[in-house]
Amino acid sequence: MSHHLVEVKDLQYRYPDGTAALNGISFLLTHGEAAAIIGANGAGKSTLLLHLNGCLMPQTGEVRIGGLPLNKDTLAHVRRTVGMVFQDPDDQLFMPIVYDDVAFGPLNLGLPPAEVDQLVNASLATVGASHLKDRPPYRLSGGEKRAVAIAAVLAMSPDILVMDEPSAALDPKTRRQLIELLHTFKHTRIIATHDLDLVLDLCSRTIILKDGRVAADGPTLEILQNQELLDSCNLEKPLCLQGCPVCGAKSGAIV
Amino acid sequence: MGNIETSLLNIGYLETLSYQQTPLQRLDPRVKLLTTLVFIIAVVSFGKYEITGLIPFVIYPVALIAVGDLPPAYLARKILLAAPFAFFIGIFNPLLDRTILVHLGPVAISGGWVSFASIMLRFCLTVSAALILIAATGLNAVCLALDKLGAPRAFVMQLLFLYRYIFVLTDEALRLVRARALRSFQGRGLGLKVFSFMIGQLLLRTLARARRIHLAMLSRGFAGRIHLLRPLHLGGRDVLFLLGWSTLFVLLRWYNIPHLLGNLAAELIG
What we know:
A: 6-stranded mixed sheet; 4-stranded antiparallel sheet; globular; B: 12 helices
């Protein structure tokens, strides 16, 4: 049994106001796989992510993390296994000082202070944010906040990383650094995003959601070149697969 | 809305002052917190007509401003900002309490005016002490000190969260205000009705954010208790600071120094 497995079986979810967000989603991710969840606004991406670490509980269907079904008894274990990076770092960095925030998770896991200190320093070093240790989060730039939010999750040593729009609101350079950082991770990664170029760079597999269903699931390159499929899901080819605006060359060829 | 913006930036400035490295900033936060408390208790425990006895207490803020390298003009502005509250608490005293207490030459001063002056003086002393505490310690360290001194955890956490999110919240409010201003012309759209919608909107957004924060906390194993990992060390200088000032405050509370000096002078002259 691998700790890195993520399995979703016929997952359905209806919000209290009656909106059906998920209408039967199934997929299986294996060890170390990097998968992108893409789809139009309101396709159910965020709702799906919230199920992966038990922020929402399945109403129908099942979520299994590392072979264990997600339910009240396994919740603590699942949350330790699945690290969730939220879309707005301001929601995630709630402690007054960066150091405290990164230490929050490990301390809740009951690790001894010396070990927590080590973990915090190591995680901050991984994302290149050691110098921000004593700063209050509201004083950080968008990119710095994102880096610290990722460090805060890494400090819990999760096997699976779930990210909601990691590249949103980042400048191009910072976005590039983030992509390189995510490249170095060995975790099973699930990334919900509209940034299809990032998907092309990072994820070998892509799952398209449409109206709470899986519209396509397969190798990223194949899916992102399927013009018809992308059109029907309110998506567009990644820029680097589109024609060059200067030389006017039709593209689509991939190196 | 430039005013709200700048005054909030100034709160941040108060915090930056606490990053300075002077002997005052280096003191243990618990010691500063306790000393401030003793100071405030001593000041507010005077009788309602007391003025002369309060004056020597000015030495505490003055000394701390000097040692901590804090900007007096900035602190004075902050005190002024809060002054209306004390002013309206005290301003009815002269109307209600008309017994003549003091004659300054031909001018008779009623008890109401004396107690009003006393209220304003106490207000300046206590508020400046509190501001200096924050400027010399930083609110986070004050919260940590409260926690270590055994204040209820829930209360400390509320304070920390308030301080963490006040900036986010005001940012959100500012964006609302700006968005309205950009689409309001000739005073239309600036009425109370729209304002009440905005307040409601802000509340809903705040609730939504609170929900997301809670989820983020749960995702990282929050189970009702927040652990803080920062040891504090009490040194000889800290103890000296606490005991020295506290003794002074107690002495000043019990012996009216200006009064004694006045008597002494009178005796010498007589």
